[in-house]
Amino acid sequence: MNDRRDxxxxxxxxxxxxxxxxxxxxxxxxxxxxGPACADLLAGRHSAGAVILGELRLPRAILxxxxxxxLGLSGAALQGYLRNPLADPGVLGVSGGAAxxxxxxFYTGLMGLSxxxxxxxxxxxxxxxxxxxxxxxxxxGALVLLLAxxxxxxxxxxxxxLALNLMPSPYASFEIMHWVMGSLTDRTFTHVWISLPGTxxxxxxxxxxxxxxxxxxxxxxxxxxxxxxxxxxxGIQARVVLGTALAVGSCVAVAGxxxxxxxxxxxxxxxxxxHQPSRLLLPSFLGGAxxxxxxxxxxxxxxxxxxxxxGVLTALAGAPVFFFRVLKMRRGMS
Amino acid sequence: xxxxxxRDVALSLGGRVVLHPSSAGVAxxxxxxxxxxxxxxxxxxxxxxxxxxxxxxxxxxxxGRPLATAGRTWRARTLSFLPQDEVPPPPMHVADLVALGxxxxxxxxxxxxxxxxxxxxxxxxxxxxxxxxxxxxLSGGERARMRLAxxxxxxxxxxxxxEPVAALDPAHALAVMDVFRRLAAGGAGVVVVLHDLMLAAxxxxxxxxxxxxxxxxxxxxxxxxxxxxxxxxxxxxxxxIEDAVIPWRLAGATE
Lengths: 334, 255
Description:
The complex is a heterodimer of chains A (334) and B (255). Chain A is mainly α and 334 residues long.
């Protein structure tokens, strides 16, 4: 019964993701003849249509799926692991680390070397943050993890602010502010290749924890007694932390900090999947991908002149969902 | 070699000795009561016996295999552990939470067998009527029974339960002790931490009395629960009286 409902939900979400993915290839600012452009692209001809399709729309659509999916899945995995519906990928401080890494690339002028420097800097920042986090937490449990994440993200935010503060040119500050808000505009296959390995590996790691997250529903000791390892290199905590860190770090490195997706998607899907963490993982990946594809389409429709950053849009759309949840929860209590 | 045996296990946590070298065990078909005042080390000994906490010295042997080196899945299928209530349950349905007890078999899931085990466990814990209720809406006692049902659903040959009747009303406490008795009669080895000396005396085959981090006495209830031992360990004078009101057995049940 549950299985059939889950499969239906995954099929619907998956179908919607495919449809929107296709739409975002076909439709854009400049009108191109899609068929010929496809043919040119496959044949390796550098026509205008092929360039727009292959170098602008395709990487952007791929990133919308992988970044949105990774953020949604990370949110679901973290909320399950921490047994806290308010957890989101930001709590580990890894997004902050990625942002700091990217900002330092701006600050030091390494930007000039290559377009790959910015995402690589972000990735390095994210990986450094994970190492610090794992070292800080050691054998500690969920509470230690939350505290370490809070400490790490506030430190990264302070250093980011310092870099902004000391930035020699106001233009560079503006660029950074823009980048930190999150965007998928003008991303190329360089960005895709930089982010894809970490994103995929991270997502796979998170998906391996599905049953373990269920087992945690009644506490650490119950999970342990059911044969799951909590701590240690192959334990649930390490897999969740490393998985979210790799995925989110790789995403922030190329797309900036896109907020609220990881927080909101599991909330939106729980009424459909129920509260069992394992049943929420795959739908959250698809839901996140769908949300970011929709947001990216909206950015393109709404933008006249100055483009609205996708991170701003997801935050604007995500916050009301929370207001609504608060009202619903209050009604449920009274 | 059958049975679950802890031999000279000792443990210190944060520089404090919480368990002096102690030995205890349970044989198949036996119901053992682990009793003692608060802080005596009952839960610690139980957690060590369940393999949740490796001892600093000594070893725990389950069916002839040292727990320290036994496979996790084998241990999870052979020994079911019911810890004290750790966290409020999520709003998952009662039956789904009880079904977590089948996770040790996840490598080879058998739907019919798992479903039957969950239904049996729900029935034993008197929860069939609540199986579709979100666990977050259960009362304290119902929650305790749900957690017990989760442990029963493993259908392991050994069950170690930490204060499983502490939150229960007299009828449900008796019913749960009956469940343990039936499990033992069916060949399982059961260790239960209890505070109710009456239940311990009436239902257990053997009592392990703990005091200040070590086993003070163990044996048949009549031999362990002496006035002198209870005075020494609990610091209470006991009276054995006839006219006290004692919930004795479930209405309609026969001896």
